[in-house]
């Protein structure tokens, strides 16, 4: 399998909405209250919201393809688009998702390698992210790649206040 990475354009909005919803549902629906989850899903992944994020020069979305098949995506935030840390020398990995059919094929690791390369090309000193404290598989993945916890922040799914661990990797 040879992955290809392509930065998303506004013409990709429909595909971005679909993969965003599909991967988020697969990852978290079973662990959340149905009404809170649906409220969050409709807000966070609406065409209007994602369209605004796509147009923001400080947010960067990439699609990940296996040949012609869309298998994942990620979103990076720099400068003003960062959600917690607002340092010029930092970049946030806000989203990284692989479709259900491609889970377990080391795609996440390849995506992370691409993300690290992009971050270095942007001359950032460190990459940071938030990960739900009740997602041990993701936490182990990031720790295996050298990320370390440096804080926590609240994250809301509808009215449900959850806690994300903030993890950092020095570049």
Automatic annotation (TrEMBL):
GO molecular function, one term: acyltransferase activity
Keyword Acyltransferase (UniProt): yes
Domain N-acetyltransferase, residue spans: 3-171
Listed transmembrane segments: none
NADP among keywords: no
InterPro entries reported in the protein's UniProt record: Acyl_CoA_acyltransferase (IPR016181), GNAT_dom (IPR000182), MshD_Acetyltransferase (IPR050276)
One Pfam family named in its UniProt record: Acetyltransf_1
Organism listed in the record: Flagellimonas iocasae
E.C. numbers: 2.3.1.-
Name of the protein in question: GNAT family N-acetyltransferase
Keywords: Acyltransferase, Transferase
């Amino acid at each position: 399998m040879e992955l290809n990475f392509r930065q998303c354009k506004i013409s990709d909005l429909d595909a971005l909405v679909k993969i965003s919803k599909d991967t988020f549902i697969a990852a978290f629906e079973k662990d959340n209250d149905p009404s809170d989850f649906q409220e969050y899903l409709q807000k966070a992944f609406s065409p209007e919201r994602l369209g605004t994020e796509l147009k923001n020069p400080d947010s960067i979305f990439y699609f990940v393809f296996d040949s012609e098949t869309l298998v994942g995506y990620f979103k990076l935030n720099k400068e003003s688009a960062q959600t917690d840390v607002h340092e010029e020398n930092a970049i946030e990995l806000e989203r990284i998702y692989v479709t259900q059919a491609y889970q377990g094929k080391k795609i996440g690791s390849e995506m992370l390698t691409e993300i690290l390369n992009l971050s270095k090309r942007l001359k950032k000193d460190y990459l940071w992210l938030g990960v739900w404290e009740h997602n041990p598989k993701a936490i182990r993945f990031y720790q295996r790649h050298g990320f370390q916890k440096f804080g926590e922040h609240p994250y809301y799914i509808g009215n449900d206040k959850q806690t994300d661990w903030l993890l950092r990797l020095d570049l």
